[in-house]
Amino acid sequence: MRSSLPDIPEYWFIFQNDRLLLMKNSVPARFPDLHWLSRFKPDFLRQYKLGIFNTIDCFCAELDARAALPDEVEPVPLRKAFEILGNDWYAAAAKAYSVINWDKNHQYCGRCGHATRHKPGTFERVCDTCGLSLYPRISPSIIVLIQKDDKILMSRSPHFPPGAFGLIAGFVEVGESIEDAVHREVKEKVDIQIKNLRYFGSQSWPFPDSLMIGFTAEYASGDIHIDRQEIEAADWYRYDNLPGRPSSSISIAKKLIDYFIAKQSQSS
Ligand SMILES: [Zn+2]
Q1: Which end of the chain is flanked by fewer CB atoms within 10 Å, N or C?
Q2: CA of residue 206 to ligand 1 center, whole Å
Q3: Is residue 61 packed enough to be buried (19+ CB in 10 Å), middle (13-18) or exposed (0-12)?
Q4: Ligand 1 centre distance from Cα of residue 105 (Å)
């Protein structure tokens, strides 16, 4: 699907201090065009071709933090930038941010400490001294919507903004399957058993490097006992009376909850 963004020959996802540069006050959003690019390029610390997204050649770059920005260009915090760009550009923006971070974080070999070099045409940095290859990191994480009749389990972590609730989520640990990770996270965090685990969908979540793998499940047994380290409240909530839901329109948590509400609304 073609984006509503204006046509220019190529799009540049330029980050400075982890913020994405967009033209100020432009609706729909606009990337800095070729005029601004020629001004920024001498201060690029790194740049890569991302590939073609929505028929447009896309690139990413990191601008030196010391480079002054013109008034017309605004550095936008990452999550806000992703929401502004919307679903059509989510994959490109996520890839851009991940590629910049990979290059920035792997300048030196973690095994022998020597400088690495980029292998042309790939997203791979290699250490010529010991042969180690370093790729963009992807950390699989699970998120699960657990249904009990017309209710779902929602919980909040002490790190959430006031009033915000979410679904059970956590990182897959080394050595375990994705399904095992779901059962373990649910058991650890709220101490219940679930059944009928079903794959829902997945989403890159580059904050900084997750791949969120979403599931639905049904309650099987047990009473909620929360792990007070990671969860400070958890309970069952009816579909039409959910507490503070994820505000991010781009998150898979929101897609899971919207799916549940739509399903229940149709059957009630
Ligand atoms: Zn090495």
Answers
A1: N
A2: 26
A3: buried
A4: 14
Single out the residue in 84, 118, 137 at which a domain terminates: 137
Task: For residue 162, give the H/E element and its range.
Answer: none
- Supply the range of the domain harboring residue 225: 139-267
pLDDT in 10s for each residue of the chain, 268 residues: 344 555 567 899 999 999 999 999 887 888 998 888 899 999 999 999 999 999 999 999 999 999 999 999 999 998 899 889 988 898 999 999 999 999 999 999 999 999 999 999 999 999 999 999 999 999 999 999 999 999 999 999 998 888 889 999 999 999 999 999 999 999 999 999 999 999 999 999 998 899 999 999 999 999 999 988 889 999 999 999 999 876 677 889 999 999 999 999 888 7
Distance CA 218, CA 152 (A): 9
> From ligand 1's centre to the CA of 113, what distance in Å?
6
The token pair that represents 236 in the structure block? 């069952």
Is residue 1 one of the residues assigned to a domain? no
DSSP state of 114: P
Q: What's the residue count for the chain?
A: 268
SS3 category, 142: strand
Report the candidate in 148, 129, 229, 150 with the shortest Cα–Cα distance to residue 185. Answer: 229
CA of residue 96 to ligand 1 center, whole Å: 26
